[in-house]
Amino acid sequence: MNKKVCIYCGANTGNFEEIVAQTIQLCDLLIAQDFDLVYGGGETGLMGIIAQQFLSQGRKVIGIRPQKLITDESAQSGLTELIVVKDMHERKGKMIALADVCIALPGGVGTLDEIIDVYTQVKIGFLDKFCGILNVNNYYKGLEVLLANMVEKGFLKTDAKDLLCIANSPEALMAAINDSSAN
User: Which residue of 4, 71, 167, 170 has the fewest CB atoms within a 10 Å radius of its CB?
Assistant: First the structure.
């Protein structure tokens, strides 16, 4: 059985070319290691790019999308499977349940919400999954500063902070995923 990676990312591509380049590079590394994709089912922005990258290499792609987003924005065509859910809460739960690994690329507040939800559940012990972030050109620098401040102020332990891998390159993130699988 193939491993499944859940990728949280934006429905836009952003305005920095390196975000798209590193997104494609990470997808290629995951595909080379036989990962299939679980994602939000969108066809625009980074969501569309990752879906097309996995589909073009013959990988399974499962999109999970609330009916409201299908009505308002549509969904990616040609998916292996499209699971329609009632709301974002159900979507997050389904995405987490189907995935072996959860990672975030650059995105908006929805992307941040999704990866923080996974991280919180891993930290508390409800989940035992790798969770990580691809920090393209310090996109998530503010989050790193916030987490460090939580440690400094006594609201987060260092070992708990380290359960969220923030990697600055696709290769570093892939190495961390592989290290977590070996343990």
Answer: 71
